[in-house]
Amino acid sequence: MRRPLRWLLVGMLVVAAVACLVTFHGVRYAYEPGTENVLSRIRATPEAYDFWGKSFSQEAARQLLQTPEGTAQLAPANGAVKVDDALLKLGRTSFYKETFGNEIFLTDVMGILNGPLRLNNVTKAILALRGGWTTNLRVKVFQTVRIGERTFPKDSYFDTGLDVPRGALVPLGMALSVSGWRIRAGITCALCHATVDGQTGKVIEGVPNQDFNAGLLLALATNSAAYFMHTDVSPLRDVPNDATRTVIGASGQRENLPDAAALETAVDKALLMWPRGNFDSLTDMKADPTQNPVSFTWGNHPYGWSGNFMAGPFRGLSSQNNNVHALNSDSLLLAESSQTLFDMDKEMYLGILLQNAASRRYRFPPSRPQRPSEFLAALSGAKGGPGLNQVVLPPTYPKGTMISPDGTLTSAPGYLFWQQNNAMAAWQDTIVPPPARVAADSATKDTGRQVFERAGCSGCHAGPFLSNHSIISTNEIGTNSARALALAKTELNFTAPVIYAFDTPVPLPSHPKTLAVPISGFDQRQVDLAWAHHGSGGGYKVPSLVGLFWTAPYLHDGGVAVGKDENANLGLAGTVGMDQMPDPFNSLKALVDRNLRARVVAANESSPELQRMNVQGVGHNYWVDAESGFTGEQQRALIQFLLTYEPGS
Questions:
Q1: pLDDT tens for residues 268-287?
Q2: Residue 108 has what DSSP assignment?
Q3: Is 323 among the domain residues?
């Protein structure tokens, strides 16, 4: 069969599939690769149980279960998570397919499919691949549009950075669903934390999508203003208000909403400045997008760039998973914290988010006697909660805790409490990166290891995962402090974490059993650095150095980036900003060579957009170069050792 005819038939099948989705309400589709289409490896799991971050081997668990005390300790009612094949299977499927309902906020409130990026155009771009793959789905602009202060001409292309595996019908990490005769798009963990290998078209699990253009996709939504707290745009300070559009505030007085069009333009402009491969998950109204983190999680605790997720199952990994789907994909969940975090009345906050909602159902009509919170509560989709995502509220809500900055706990109906979060954490802990595509013989690796020790790198990057799991003050590490300080305001609304027993069904029964999450064993100084509390100034965790070949650029801001040509492709502006992927060898060289780093920093500083986003690539001034007494050969050996390092090697 000729290829054009074959792909015409494929297109017809896609149309038929969409028709089936419309016919059968509630259907969701997302791509989950078979193991034959994956390059990453899987670590054998000797753990049988996790108990608040402590792992029990099969033998240790067997012995414990022979005693009544041990049986009670390893019960889900007391916080234990049994790690078995069923849990790992659920974790993998959830990683690729579970949205926790974020398609409603993204589609009906933000309008992710209502702007110039339409589902039919995305589908056309995928069909044009003819069963092939891409690491950057290019979607044609169907009419000239102006977003922020940038014009996209008709018949040009949006470089989305979306990955499409070989033969997939949707981008990796995108979930399509149909209900109420409306097609919605949601996101899963795989959108940012897995990627397609450009050489084979296979999926690499755990590798960040280094060129994902999240800022562009959000800016193309019709109500990007609903994501303002992830930018440095203040609706009450930076845009004029509109006296014809008001809300009743908490005080009972009418207050003017900000001008919707002006706010949309300001937020779009800020979002378009996000570097590709970066995402601003912090709701501090600062410009501080961070590099998408790896999901080679085993041995990489605590989690989050500042190490703030350390409490809870799997050494805090379940807490980080909770944060992704609570804090980052439904801004409505922050309403009760808006006064503390944004100095903004919750009614004004909700009015801003909903005044230009894409769906009429969720669009708040200003100047009416109903408060925005009452309007939201009346929607059946809100289900009595503070937002639209699938969350439950612990007894501590609305206070934030060490496991949840916004105070909510992501849990989907029909599962046990946190079952999918824990399952994803257990499965992520099994991911092992593919072997690096770097040639290095044993003698070179041995030399590199000796240089690593002589240079003092092992002082922090110690142990089998090359991390001592500590948090280092920004004053010591010297990197840009914006991200380390992002959680400082949570101190005003913080309390000890309490969750529900892991055998609790969702929706919650009338009197669910609660559990206090153990936090007494943590060093308070480390906790303060992680959350920037008590005037600590914040800090950054010592990351594991496993899988460095797959995770360039480097540092939390992704600013240490160098392409294949270290003279032409410097900084993020000279790499992903020019559709050039950072080269792992050259980027790692810039991390340890002060002269190359200075040129990278200068390149970043030459971009006003990167400066506004606090992307510099400064700090971590631990050099392995001529000025430090190392030869070029020794420097190369160190880089090859690091790029090929595997625990136990």
A1: 999 999 999 999 998 999 99
A2: I
A3: no
